Amino acid sequence: MSLWLADSLGRAPAAPAPQDWRARLRDWADAVELVPDLGQRVGSLIWFRGLATCFGLCATALYLSPGFQPVPGASGPMLSDAQYDEVRSQMITPLALGADSGHRMGSTDAVQPLRQTPERPQIELNAQIGSSDTLARALSRAGVSGGDVATITSMVGGDISGGVKPGTRLDIILGRRASRDRPRPLDKLAFRARLDLGLELTRPGGVLSVRRIPIRVDNTPLRIQGVVGDSIYQSARASGAPPKAVQAFLRVIVGQADLGSIGAGDRYDIVTEYRRAETGDVEVGDLLYAGLQRARGKSIDMLKWTTGGRTEWFEASGVGERRGVLSAPVAGRMSSGFGQRRHPILGYTRMHAGIDFAARYGSPIYAVTDGVVAFAGRHGGHGNYVRIQHGGGLATGYAHMSRIAAAPGQRVRRGQVIGYVGSTGLSTGPHLHYELYRNGATVNPLSVKFTTTAQLAGADLAAFRAKLAQYKGLRAGQQDRFAQRSPAPSSVPVASGK
Ligand SMILES: [Zn+2]
Predict the structure, then answer these.
(1) Per-residue pLDDT tens for 97-120?
(2) Which 8-state DSSP code applies to residue 447?
(3) Whole-number pLDDT of residue 305
């Protein structure tokens, strides 16, 4: 304004345009520089003035701020100790702490303490037989007196000679005792001694007596059949085979075939001992029969049989007949015979001490007849090699295996898988090099014919065949003999059909 007035001294002032004075004000502010950049010209007079302006503005802002006092809110009324005790007795907390309501009453002379608290006339309880436990120990733990335990043990010892199954439940009733310093007498004990026997001990007239309750048991073996899907174990389990039976089945099968070669479409057939009580409990026993119908390859038909005091698994197809040697130890064609020939790798003519069978990589190799494995392992140009001693100075050798499925000293049967075709050692491709030794020297395998005596003969063989036919005639699945009848355990004798 003063600039404008000064200008007006000279000439008559022209009416200033609004844009004009605004521009002048801007020019003046630029010249004075009210808010200098504190990042530049540090230390100069203008910088200090800027700093002072900054402090001044901050101080003004702080001075004008409303302050940081807490905002007061409404609070509940304070409880006195007595009031709190009253409230606390109505809360759920004391219940958790043993219903301590905070109030305690001292007894006065009006209260007479009981000399003897009354006893319950009977105690009913359940005990359980643990693993590696005995009936006597379980009873003692439950509070049965030593005298009663000894009496019970002598009374039922014969029924539980095989031990009571772990997990068996004991229903116990302890009766009234004559005085406090004596143990309660056993009034009743009931438990399952075996799958087919229940025991009940009672004390009529003060003397323990035992009642044996037979439980009917169906001993019909269980047959399970099905088709192998992705896994033979899972397929068999899915069809209801007990795990124990499937495991036993696989142990038998693995001696006869490569588990990896069992695939979709093969049919398994399992017969196992199976005891089924009318109460619904079951007991799975030993495996009796293992069958495998292969979609391709040799089918397996194994029956457990005891002969001459030894229980063994017999391949049903081969039992009982006088047999020659297997036509070939592997499924394949003969590609090279015995005798002088040009060696395919070494290049010169030399003796070929066996015969070669061309076969697919991984095909199973079978023992040509029964014997004992004399060697199984790596053997120079033979690669993975198995030699079986057959008696009578004869031995057979199987070379170039990809995998060996026999161990030295093992007894093998005719047709048992001892390894798989490969190309280990001096070999140009997967094949089986098969040798026959007579008194240690190789001979032409085709020149010797093995015959073996029958494993079973006469009545033994007839019984074997009858048992096999019986198992194969079994209806698959669980045979529910008890479904129709109402249980009447004490009046029906124990069923023991075999
Ligand atoms: Zn060869």
Answers:
(1) 666 555 666 678 888 888 888 888
(2) G
(3) 82
How many angstroms separate the alpha carbon of residue 356 from the centre of ligand 1? 5
434 alpha carbon – ligand 1 mean position (Å): 7
Predicted structure pTM score: 0.48
- Given a contact cutoff of 8 angstroms between Cβ atoms, the answer to whether 177 and 167 are in contact is no
Q: Among residues 367, 374, 440, 382, which one has the least CA distance to residue 407? A: 374
Query: Which spans in 75-194 are helix H?
Result: 81-88, 93-96, 135-142, 146-156
User: How far does residue 352's CA lie from ligand 1's centre (Å)?
Assistant: 6
Q: Do domains 123-214 and 333-447 have the same CATH topology?
A: no
Report the separation in Å between the CA atom of 415 and the middle of ligand 1, taken as the mean of its atom positions: 21
Determine the distance separating the centroid of ligand 1 and the alpha carbon of 444, expressed in angstroms. Answer: 12
Cα-to-centroid distance, 278 and ligand 1 (Å): 63
The pLDDT value given to residue 318 = 60
Domain 333-447 has CATH 1.10.10.10: no
Q: What residues flank ion ligand 1 with Cβ within 5 A?
A: 356, 433
CB distance 422 to 449 below 8 Å? no
Q: Pseudo-torsion of CA 59, 63, 69, 72, nearest 10°?
A: -150
Q: How far is the CA of 110 from the centre of ligand 1 (A)?
A: 111
CA of residue 387 to ligand 1 center, whole Å: 15
pLDDT digits (tens, 9 = 90+) for 305-353: 887 666 777 777 666 554 444 567 888 788 888 887 777 676 777 788 8
The CATH code for residues 218-322+454-486 is 3.10.450.350
Residue ranges of the domains in the chain? 123-214, 218-322+454-486, 333-447
> How many A from CA of 365 to the centre of ligand 1?
15
Give Dmax (Cα) for the chain. 155
Query: 406 alpha carbon to ligand 1 midpoint, in Å?
Result: 21
Q: How far is the CA of 416 from the centre of ligand 1 (A)?
A: 22
How remote is the CA of residue 337 from the centroid of ligand 1, in Å?
A: 8
Long-range contacts of 403-409 (CB under 8 A, 24+ apart): 404/376, 404/377, 405/258, 405/364, 406/367, 406/373, 406/376, 407/373, 407/376, 408/373, 408/374, 408/375, 408/376, 408/377, 409/372, 409/373
Neighbours of 314 (CB within 10 A): 19
CATH architecture of 123-214: Roll (3.10)
Distance 431 CA to ligand 1 centre (A): 8
The mean of the pLDDT values for the chain is: 80
Tokens describing residue 213: 């309750």
Helices of type H across 38-145: 45-64, 81-88, 93-96, 135-142
How many angstroms is it from 433 CA to the middle of ligand 1?
A: 4
Taking Cα atoms as reference points, which of 35, 471, 76, 144 lies closest to residue 290?
A: 471
